[in-house]
Design goal:
- This is Guanosine-3',5'-bis(Diphosphate) 3'-pyrophosphohydrolase.
- It is built from ten helices and no strands.
- It is mainly α and about 180 residues long.
- The protein is globular, with a radius of gyration of 15 Å.
């Protein structure tokens, strides 16, 4: 199957799952699929600039990275529809709802670091995409905390993807200026 076919199949699956939840990008009325396609765009560009990078696998992860966290989609459905490796990658990118809020990100990062670098790349691309101007209702404290989280992600996933690490560093510097 071509990467274009993989992209189309995966984005349609993800779009339906997120649309069923009436999910939009927080602070906007844009459909959530816009965020997912932006993460996928970062991955497509990174795959062109990274040796030994499985772009097909990474595109699937990029488009599906929030489906377990934000929809009632079961892990088993991802594994059956896509593959065990895709389902495992998405699971690692999913915050564990049973943990305290302050523990969720490090737990996810620790699980990501045990998987292929493409999973690392999707986490980097996700945060790059999320570092847009913060919503107007966010406090200065929340903005600072979000920026700090981005710096932690960049530090923890150092060595995962040089291109995306540089992109994240640039977005962190631009954030909230």
């Amino acid at each position: 199957m071509s990467i274009q076919d993989i992209y189309q199949t995966t984005i349609q699956f993800a779009a339906q799952k997120h649309t069923d939840q009436n999910q939009t990008i927080p602070g906007t009325n844009l459909p959530y699929i816009v965020h997912l396609s932006n993460v996928a765009m970062e991955i497509l560009l990174a795959s062109e600039r990274t040796e030994n990078f499985d772009g097909e696998f990474a595109i699937q992860l990029a488009l599906l990275h929030d489906v377990l966290e934000d929809t009632p989609t079961p892990y088993e459905e991802l594994e059956k529809t896509f593959s065990k490796s895709v389902a495992e990658g998405v699971l690692a990118l999913t915050k564990n709802a049973d943990l305290e809020k302050d523990e969720k990100m490090m737990d996810s990062l620790n699980r990501i670091k045990k998987l292929p670098k493409e999973v690392w790349a999707v986490k980097l691309a996700d945060r790059i995409t999320n570092l847009q101007p913060p919503p107007a209702h966010w406090s200065e404290e929340k903005i600072k905390k979000y920026k700090l989280e981005a710096e932690i992600i960049r530090h923890e996933l150092r060595g995962g993807n040089e291109y995306l690490e540089k992109r994240l560093e640039q977005k962190i510097q631009e954030y909230n200026q």
